């Protein structure tokens, strides 16, 4: 995994592909996440990490948003302050 960090573009691809599997609340990859080919058809899943129900698309959108914010170095947008 350390090797991937040296290749920004590759890391980007890898991390983007996990946006549907990562818990948008805790940032973890819980055991109950939709994995592999079977996971592609799953619309929503119960997170074993936080106990919440994550809609696949909403969860992915939140993860992308979280990623964008951490990359920009801002915890919140001006509108949310
Ligand atoms: Zn969760």
Largest sheet: 2 strands, antiparallel
Small molecules (ligands, ions, cofactors) in the structure: zinc ion
Number of domains: 1
Rounded radius of gyration (Å)? 14 Å
DSSP helical segment count: 4
Determine the N-to-C terminus distance.
35 Å
State the helical fraction: 40-55%
Mean pLDDT level: 80
Low-confidence spans? none
Order of H and E elements: HHHEEH
Number of beta-strand segments: 2
Strand content is: 5-15%
Cα shape = globular
Give the spatial strand order of the biggest sheet: 1-2
Category from helices, strands and their pairing? mainly alpha
Written overview of the protein:
By secondary structure, the chain is mainly alpha-helical. It has one domain (about 1-75). The chain is about 40% helix and about 5% strand. β1 and β2 form a beta hairpin. The longest helix is centred in the C-terminal third of the chain and has 17 residues, at about 55-70. The mean pLDDT is about 80. Zinc ion binds near residues 23, 25, 26, 47 and 54.
């Amino acid at each position: 995994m350390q090797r991937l960090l040296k290749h920004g573009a590759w890391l980007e691809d890898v991390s983007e592909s996990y946006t549907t599997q990562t818990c948008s609340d805790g940032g973890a990859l819980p055991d109950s996440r939709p994995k592999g080919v079977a996971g592609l058809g799953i619309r929503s899943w119960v997170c074993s990490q936080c106990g919440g129900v994550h809609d696949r698309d909403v969860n992915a959108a939140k993860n992308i948003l979280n990623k964008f914010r951490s990359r920009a170095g801002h915890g919140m947008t001006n509108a949310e302050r």
